[in-house]
Specification:
The chain is built from 15 helices and two strands. α3 crosses α12, α3 runs antiparallel to α13 and α5 (about 115-135) packs antiparallel against α11 (about 230-255). It is globular. It has helices spanning about 15-20, 25-50, 60-85, 90-105, 115-135, 140-160, 170-180, 185-205, 205-215, 220-225, 230-255, 265-275, 290-305, 315-340, 345-350; strands at about 180, 185. Helix content is about 70%, strand content about 0%.
């Protein structure tokens, strides 16, 4: 199989398939693809009807964008290694250290904020490279490797801050990274949008994106097709580490202080967003817009529940249950995709000239 034959085998219908269906059949066929998009709209309409004075307002929209932009960036960071069939748990631990460093480099060492941000980004990329080496060279399972690396990062954050808040005078320019507005909305929302467009273009239209998906579908088959699996998997972790560091810088600009007790709560919703993303738009395949839809569902659901008077434990409960549902749906979609990719044995027996395509060993 040539490299240019590597293509998506997600469960979204083709134009030819839709043309063969009745209008109702098209709706039924498209429902699994855009079900979460519809759910997000239904939730927004529902909370707007029962909370007309608080939910459908510009103030609430600003609050949602400001609160969930960092989670959206972390979800996209988690998504990239997931495309290659790996998982990166350092996003939840790394953001603790990176936001502390972004503050301490300025307050304790007098580093200008642009240079401090650049240092943090480079360190994030270095940690991503380390994760890639542990997974691809040392052959450690990505869950274990990134959990271990993340725990070390969290320990370093505790040691560096000595468990205390890092407070000091910071330049106004640093605050604008998070506090500025564009078209009446927080600038962080446009960071997410720009990042999503870039990642979507890279994954869908550039060779590196096709290689990432091929590696995630079947790394052995990808290697046999000449794709340097090790190099691209490491690159995925480097990208994830860099995005995590960027989220840490934005969090530091938002909080204006550094503290080791902040950051870990982002890990679960980031994972939820990425897993939900694999169940919509392109079911069975991790994708950019699906990930943002997953984050949007979390944002709308939690905002509405909180405005209805939900207790402090509602948000983690909502995140946890949604993660379980997302993993279950994603697993089902991948099994269905694998079954669809495997030709019936009877066809192979009747046609000795047919060359069966090996069933892909997909990973979440």
């Amino acid at each position: 199989m040539a490299l240019n034959s590597v293509k998506s085998n997600a469960l979204e219908p083709t134009r030819f398939e839709l043309d063969q269906l009745s209008p109702m059949g098209r709706v039924v066929r498209l429902l699994p693809v855009y079900g979460l998009v519809i759910l997000a709209v239904v939730l927004a309409v529902f909370f707007s009807l029962i909370l007309p004075s608080t939910f459908p307002t510009l103030l609430n929209l600003r609050s949602i964008v400001s609160d969930k932009a960092i989670i959206a960036i972390l979800s996209l960071a988690v998504m990239i290694p997931m495309v290659t069939g790996k998982i990166d748990l350092t996003v939840g631990y790394g953001i603790v250290l990176w936001h502390i460093l972004a503050i301490s480099l300025q307050v304790w060492f007098g580093v200008p904020w642009p240079l401090a941000a650049l240092i943090v980004l480079l360190l994030g990329a270095a940690v991503g490279f380390l994760n890639g080496v542990l997974v691809e060279v040392a052959q450690i399972d990505s869950f274990i490797a990134t959990l271990g690396t993340g725990t070390v990062l969290y320990a370093i954050a505790m040691w560096h801050s000595k468990g205390r808040q890092i407070i000091g005078t910071l330049p106004e320019g640093f605050f604008t990274l998070n506090g500025a507005r564009f078209l009446g909305l927080p600038i962080t929302g446009f960071y997410v949008l720009a990042l999503a467009v870039v990642l979507w273009f890279v994954l869908e239209y550039l060779p590196i994106g096709r290689y990432f998906y091929a590696i995630g579908a079947n790394p052995k088959a990808a290697a046999l097709n000449g794709i340097p699996v090790r190099r691209y998997t490491i690159a995925a972790f480097v990208t994830s580490g860099t995005l995590t560091a960027a989220a840490g810088v934005i969090l530091a600009s938002k909080l204006r202080i550094g503290q080791a007790s902040v950051g870990l709560e982002f890990l679960l919703p980031a994972l939820v967003g990425a897993f939900l993303g694999s169940t919509t738009i392109k079911p069975g395949r991790v994708n950019v817009w699906g990930t943002l839809i997953g984050v949007a569902i979390l944002a709308i659901g939690i905002s509405g529940i909180q405005q209805l008077g939900g207790s402090f434990w509602v948000e983690p409960m909502f995140n946890g249950l949604t993660l379980l549902v997302a993993i279950g749906i994603a697993g089902y979609a991948q099994r269905k995709r694998g079954a669809a990719a495997s030709p019936p044995k009877a066809v192979v027996l009747r046609d000795p000239q047919a060359v069966p395509t090996p069933r892909e060993d997909t990973q979440p």
